[in-house]
Amino acid sequence: MKKTWFKELSVYQIWPRSFCDGNGDGIGDLKGVLGKLDYIKSLGVDAIWFSPLYVSPQKDYGYDIADYRNINPEYGTMDDFKAVLDGAHERGMKVIMDLVVNHTSDQHEWFKKSAAKDPKYKDYYIWRPGRGKDGKKFPNNWMSTFPGNAWEWNEERGEYYLHLFAVEQPDLNHDNPAVREEVKSVMRFWLDMGVDGFREDVITYISKREGLPDGFPLPIMRGMEHYSPGPNIHKYLLEYRQVVKDYDAFQLGEAPMMTPKNALKYIREGKDQQLDMMFQFQHMEADCFMTSYLRTKFNLRKLKKVYRNWQHKMYGVAWNTNYLENHDQPRVISRYGSEKYRTESGKALATLYTFMSGTHFVYQGQEIGMLDYPFKDWSDFVDVATFCAKGIMEKTHLFSKKKIFENCAYAARDNARTCMQWSAEANGGFTTGTPWFHVNPNYKDINVAAEESDPGSLLNYYRKVIALRKEYKDAAIYGRYVEKMASSKKIFAYDKIAEDGGVLTVVINMTDREVPAARAAKCVPEGAEHILGNYGGSMAAVLKPYEAHVYYKAPAK
Ligand code: NOJ
After folding, report:
1. What is the pLDDT of residue 117?
2. Which of 204, 274, 301, 514 is the most interior residue, by most CB within 10 Å?
3. Cα 251 to middle of ligand 1, angstroms
């Protein structure tokens, strides 16, 4: 197993709009981040990933970029960014930027010039005439991820443009070498400034099949077989890889619908490797069918199967990422854990994923166990994706109005985007002004300040697991995964075995009931030392709800 600095990172993700407001305008910003760098460092993490900070009309909250080389004025200035970058580096933390190049905003200069048929820019996007007699029929039958058809008519140009996400997010034409040069130049701009890597948004979508043929008639994501992936994906990614190679930076590709077999085509270590690691989604489907809008009961065996698959198939040849939350996922305690046993299940989940092999990610608020928001009305939501999902469900006539609302409240990305809960003060200490979005009313109990002062808090537990992951890194980060009690619907147990023979054993009761511990106890090697537990001591005769343990057995001398 090749050891590399980026494999060992624990990364803290910041979704800037809701992290911390430093100037009282109700919107999170870089001044706010600067004031929290010591807090972030105190978690023991080694890096920060920023969701997009760039100039953007915020139709998709920053994932619609109008200027890749400037900071969104709501978040501050380039000098503010440089102060955060320096501040992070001074504290020994890397900084990872979001690179969103499948699409731009329709307010980007490139798009405006492309619509006006400026010769330099006319082929920067994917334009097509309409079909049919009047030329007004869509160029093909593809659908966008934010459902609806994937084409929008542009009056000025007199043609349709492709958008695989919102109408305001036109897809760039990576088949145009000039566009690829622009992407490389944007990458160099940030790398020259000193950033340490990129998280590359839906990067597996950037190549589209020539001729843009009609897709298989699916009710959602129609056409995806022609771009996920497209024919030139590996070629384009290898070009982008060359840029990063000059800087010892790393690349993490977001990859919807990715399987281990296909992932290896991108991340297998060696000369054709295009990305260092990927964000896959399969482990986020243990409580749903394909999308969290189609909710099912949490299924532990489904979750185990995904971990087993990825841990085994990447071992020794490629590298995983480990995350349970991000800005697109509802809060994990509300999904895979229990709000009733918030602290216990939060700790169980932290234990479950931190000791898997892979680069480790923690999303803002996850470390204090923030929960989903109690949505009451449609006017409580702001995310384009939520309203698209509503529209699609209405069209199917399969769900009652009430059910559609419940599905959205459960699955909405809005859940991840409520304001960070810093203290029991007004607005959870997020802002002195009027917050741009909800603060969960539970902020008086669930907040950083309260958890700082409680040695038994989830926050302090996160600090422990992050530290242990490093202390036992040969097993935790690089060890071989061996699952125990694979068929159990209640217990999640596994070993991580280091090359020197050291064994780290994780045992968790993933239910809200007591479970006899006898079988679980047999998973622990004789003579192993108890290094972590979420109820205090070592395992007794019964495992309490969400009880979790970690043991370590040193190699024989
Ligand atoms: C994935 C991002 O994580 C999500 O927030 C965004 O809406 C889409 N890509 C489109 O950029």
Report:
1. 98
2. 204
3. 17
